[in-house]
Write a structure and sequence with these properties.
elongated; Arc Repressor Mutant, subunit A; about 50% helix; 4 helices; about 0% strand
Length: about 70
């Protein structure tokens, strides 16, 4: 899920002004890990992933598993 930059700024500001990450996660219903990642970043803009490594190698799977007709 992608959060707006305004929402990200609200959460980060809340934590930097003394709120705990756990309470911010509860209030804004966002995972704690997500908040920790936002706190590490300078730019809160969403990161566009160009290419992901897939778990399955589809070509190898097609070689190993015959198709049903």
């Amino acid at each position: 899920m992608s959060y707006s930059i305004d929402d990200r700024k609200k959460v980060v500001t809340y934590v930097r002004n003394g709120g705990s990450v756990t309470s911010a996660a509860r209030i804004y219903q966002i995972g704690r890990t997500t908040i920790y990642e936002w706190l590490k970043r300078e730019n809160l803009s969403p990161i566009k992933v160009e290419h992901r490594q897939r778990k399955l190698d589809w070509k190898a799977l097609e070689r190993d598993v015959p198709r049903k007709s």
